[in-house]
Structures are given as C-alpha cells and as structure tokens.
C-alpha cells in the first residue's frame, strides 16, 4: 500500500514538473516566435526529473556522510563545488539569509 501511495505522489510530482516545464517552454517559444513539440517537452521533463533525482541522492549522501539526517546548506554548497559561479550565487544568498536572521534576532531581543 505504501508503494502505491509513493508511486502516486511521484506521478503527481512528475505531472506538476511537466506542467511547469511546458509553461516555461511555451512562454519562451512565444517570445522567440518558435514552436516546441510535445515530444521535446516530454524529453526535457525526463531530463530534469533525472537530474532532480541525482541531486537528491547526492544531497542525502553528503548529509549521511556528515552524520546528519537533515540536508543543510553546507550539503548544497558541496554539491555546487564544481560550478564556481553557481556556488558563489548560493553562498551569497545563504550569507544574506544568515545576516537577516541575525538582524531579526537582535531586533526582537531589543523589543523585549
């Protein structure tokens, strides 16, 4: 029963991914005055799905190797290590979020 439910969730996620990719491709096709076939959208969806699965496996593996059960930003940065531009963008975003969190803590501490 759990497998059927898991497969159902996976199919629903894949359908949502197909819908999102289809919308992006349609928008870009209109912008460029080009057409994309349903086969192209299906193939692109499969490619993206496979990449998502690989990323998920890698993130889980990094987390487990570090002795954690939760994926952290450190795992994401490790995953992006081979793409320095992507790693830089992610690191900047993480740093901004951490700074905002610290600022919020200090602000809420002063209000008490």
UniProtKB/TrEMBL annotation:
GO BP, one annotated term: DNA repair
Alphabetical keyword list: DNA damage, DNA repair, DNA-binding
Signal peptide (residue range): none
SUPFAM superfamilies, per the entry: Histone-fold
GO MF, one example: DNA binding
Coiled-coil regions listed: none
GO-annotated cellular components: FANCM-MHF complex
Similarity section: Belongs to the TAF9 family. CENP-S/MHF1 subfamily.
Protein name: Apoptosis-inducing TAF9-like domain 1 family protein
Species the sequence originates in: Neurospora tetrasperma (strain FGSC 2508 / ATCC MYA-4615 / P0657)
């Amino acid at each position: 029963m759990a497998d059927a439910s898991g497969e159902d969730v996976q199919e629903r996620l894949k359908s949502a991914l197909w819908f999102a990719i289809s919308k992006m491709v349609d928008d870009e096709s209109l912008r460029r005055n080009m057409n994309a076939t349903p086969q192209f959208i299906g193939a692109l969806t499969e490619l993206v799905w496979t990449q998502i699965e690989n990323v998920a496996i890698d993130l889980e593996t990094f987390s487990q190797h570090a002795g954690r059960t939760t994926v952290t930003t450190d795992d994401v940065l490790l995953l992006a290590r081979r793409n320095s531009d992507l790693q830089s963008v992610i690191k900047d975003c993480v740093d901004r979020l951490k700074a905002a969190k610290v600022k919020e803590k200090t602000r809420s501490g002063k209000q008490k």
